[in-house]
Amino acid sequence: MTSILPLLLFVAVATVTPGGATTLAAASGARFGFVRSIPLMLGIAMGLALLAALAALGLGGLLLTLPSLQTAVRTLGSAYLLWLAWRIARSGPPNASNGPVRPVSLVNGFLLLWLNPKGWAMTVGAAASFALLANNPNRLAMLLGAAFGVTACASLALWCALGVLFARLFRTPRHWRILNLAMGVLLAASLIPTWR
């Protein structure tokens, strides 16, 4: 158990720090409420768990040996997250017609995570750093998948609840413009570390 504690600490810090997924969870909570945001959160958590498991099985090694594939994943993911940031920044209050009318679905949350450069960096880094915790890749895949999946559920729920709190505090269209602009900027800024 003591050898797993550093992994759990790494995963907790990696998933709770601001990034694309956490910002989307907060924005969804603010716009649609906690319950309607559950599919998004579950989709992201499931996508992260699968990505972590695949990184442990060798996908991370493939990405590390093929820099062009790594660049392609980062470019596609960044473009998609920038588009989402733009949509969030331009949306108004939850009842405004210029924002998304439905929360992100479970499937789209799952797919969205696969385009998140931070998700790739976290899982590949964890697979490389904690490979010695298991005596074979299958066990490492189960360990990383479970750790990232469970922790992502908790951190996304926390960020979504924060978004719900924002929705209760912000009453005027001006407040919503400021919140949405801040969320869009945070989402765009979350890409900076992936390009260093």
UniProtKB/TrEMBL annotation:
Membrane-crossing segments per the record: 37-64, 109-133, 140-166, 178-195
Record-level GO BP terms: cysteine export across plasma membrane
Gene Ontology, cellular component aspect: plasma membrane
Short name of any one Pfam family annotated for the protein: LysE
Molecular functions (GO terms): amino acid transmembrane transporter activity
Record key words, sorted: Cell membrane, Membrane, Transmembrane, Transmembrane helix
Primary location recorded for the protein, binned into one broad class: membrane
Domain of life of the source: Bacteria
Compartments, as annotated in UniProt: Cell membrane
Membrane disposition: Multi-pass membrane protein
Name this protein carries in UniProt: Threonine/homoserine/homoserine lactone efflux protein
